[in-house]
Amino acid sequence: MDKIAVHGLKSFELAVIESLKKNESSILKRAQNQESQRSIIGTSASARDFGENDVWHNWAGNISFKPAKIFNPKSVQDLKDYVKAAQKDGKKIRCAAEGHTWSSLSMTNDYLVILNNLDKVTVEKRNDGYVVHAEAGAEISQIDEVLENHDPPLTITSMTVLDNVRIGGVVATGCHGARTESRTIVDQVVGLQIVTGDGELHEFSDEINRDEMNAARVSLGLLGIIYRVSLRVEPMYDLRMIDTYPLKSNFNAATLKNLIENSDGLEIFYWPFNSSSKETEKLWIKRWIKSIEPATLSDLQQVFLRVAQSASTKIAHDFYQLILESPEKTPSITNLAGKVKLIERDEVWKAPNAIHYQAGIDNIPCYDLEFAIKADKDFENVVTEIDYVFNKIYDYAKEGKYPINLVVEMRILKSSSAILSNGYDEDPDAIYFFLEVLSITGTPLFNEFTTELAQRWMQKYNALPHWAKSWEYLPNITEYIHDKLGERINKFEAVRVKYDPNNMFFDNESLKRVFYGTK
């Protein structure tokens, strides 16, 4: 039965592609206006305007609240007006966009500003290259589309896999891609426009004031409402994307070092119970290398592939519900999923397609914990922590417990200059690995298991969590972050109080405890 299911599921995407090819001419007519493949799919689920008295909830479903008012701005003047109205009414302001943040950063009892309608994107040619200016509510897919259609075609250097998240939230929470030399996404930001506590638009850049810019790069919404983000971009290029599946038992620090030195980007996954025994378990290693060879897939084939991926993840969501009903089936179900998903690949894709290599991820709501850990120079501690998570999963399994059922994922990046980044370091050559674990929403024991991981990483490495992922359930976490940020809080506060002296944007209980160290 398993073999029949594997065969059927493994060929699902190909079957969808073949079906769609029969209607290629009609699809081509729809694509003639140079729409991006991501806009054709239309995966955005929360682009509507929220009513003034609506209850807002995030994508994962773990955060919901009813603010006093919800605003949907369509211009920078709207933002200025909201801030001045809040001043007059004695209210505070927080912001949200697509809602892909697990933590409570957007929560407020006062005014919530939804930035989705601010989505204009333009390109500027400067003496040292090109810069894309994107309003805070622009989806990454919109930015990609404008850049691809530019003459000459351009691309963002590194970005999240998800392309339907909004650039304002990506920057404000310090998100990252997987390209080692590019650091985090905020380190590609060359300018920010923020409506601050005085209700006016202020410009931030390294040229104006480097210290203030490094505070603004990851601001958590505490300096004001981000109106526009300016990112350094580069001429379009292709990436060879290579997926291999070596035995985990053969993976060591020397292997990892070689992969880092010979790749433009690197992502390492462990798919739980992907083999018949612990000894034969495999890792999934995804590499990106710049290529001058022609793309393997045409633009239309990319459209077909992404449609198939999106459809597959919707089926997978239903499939994974069996785990919630019967957790003891986790090994067999994740093993089956691994057989479907873990296929070796060596193809050349356009850079944005390779960066956003998987469509439909948000069809599977999940839990997610991530920490940034400083890597040893020989990368031994990276392998040590992969081994630790792997062995811990099997230790739990011996007791019939299965808290991790999606994936363990790791990316390796150079340090960030942003003061509040969890990958911040004064040494620009320092390297951090960003280790995360994911399970479908509702998985029993996820908090217990990830608390053990987090406590180890905090005690052993002074590691810090990703602001946008889940972290607030960890015991004493706000006091811990306050202690580890140390003088960095004072540096950030010096900038924050300048632009928000009345604490208009400081309406989040977790952040209050982080900044002030109170219980």
Automatic annotation (TrEMBL):
Pfam families: ALO, FAD_binding_4
InterPro entries recorded: ALO_C (IPR007173), Cytok_DH_C_sf (IPR016170), FAD-bd_PCMH (IPR016166), FAD-bd_PCMH-like_sf (IPR036318), FAD-bd_PCMH_sub1 (IPR016167), FAD-bd_PCMH_sub2 (IPR016169), FAD-linked_Oxase-like_C (IPR016164), FAD_lactone_oxidase-like (IPR010031)
Keywords from the named record: FAD, Flavoprotein, Oxidoreductase
Origin: domain of life: Eukaryota
GO molecular function terms noted in the UniProt entry: D-arabinono-1,4-lactone oxidase activity; FAD binding
EC number(s) on file: 1.1.3.37
Pathway the protein contributes to: Cofactor biosynthesis; D-erythroascorbate biosynthesis; dehydro-D-arabinono-1,4-lactone from D-arabinose: step 2/2
GO CC aspect terms: membrane
Coiled coil: none
Domain FAD-binding PCMH-type as annotated: residue spans: 63-236
UniProt-recorded name of the protein: D-arabinono-1,4-lactone oxidase
Source organism per UniProt: Glomus cerebriforme
